[in-house]
Design goal:
64% of the residues lie in helices and 0% in strands.
């Protein structure tokens, strides 16, 4: 007697329409390519759009005084040290994320830095605002993918994958 719950047709994992419409996540080369594109884009935007200017200026090396003052106004002890940590997290962490080098630790630093930006610096600001107005939006747009990178790692197209095979899982 046949099973009344059995489905006819190709198995879901072999159905091309399922892959086209729903994908297979990061379990495939295409999924990992998508992960890599997001990782590289977000990492480089963070590194050069936010971190670089906090470390390198026209006439200075290190966080600008205005940023140090902002960190101080948020109540952090040793504001210069915390400003440096944020700048390094954004610049070097962004480069590491883009390369997929220590992806999870880099993502964790993003989460911490962006949580401070969203919930302390922009704590009383709306979640989203009109252009030019302050909001939590930008910090959240960096923090949420960082949570995904923390969970997923760098994927197969990352330096982490090479390190894993060469240093830690020699087979």
């Amino acid at each position: 007697m046949s099973d009344p719950n059995a489905r006819s047709g190709p198995a879901p994992s072999t159905c091309p329409l399922n892959h086209l419409l729903f994908g297979a996540g990061s379990r495939t080369a295409v999924g990992d390519l998508g992960l890599a594109i997001a990782r590289v884009g977000i990492g480089l935007y963070m590194a050069f759009g936010h971190g670089y200017g906090k470390i390198f200026g026209e006439d200075r090396f290190g966080p600008p005084q205005g940023f140090v003052d902002l960190v101080d106004s948020l109540g952090f002890p040793a504001p210069l040290a915390f400003a440096w940590m944020a700048a390094i997290s954004e610049f070097l962490g962004g480069l590491a994320l883009a390369a997929g080098l220590l992806t999870r630790p880099a993502a964790l630093t993003f989460i911490g830095t962006m949580a401070v930006a969203a919930f302390l610096q922009h704590g009383s600001d709306p979640w989203a605002a009109s252009p030019g107005e302050a909001s939590k939006e930008m910090a959240m747009l960096y923090m949420l993918p960082a949570i995904a990178f923390l969970a997923l790692g760098g994927g197969r197209f990352s330096v982490d994958e090479v390190l894993k095979k060469v240093l830690f899982c020699k087979r």
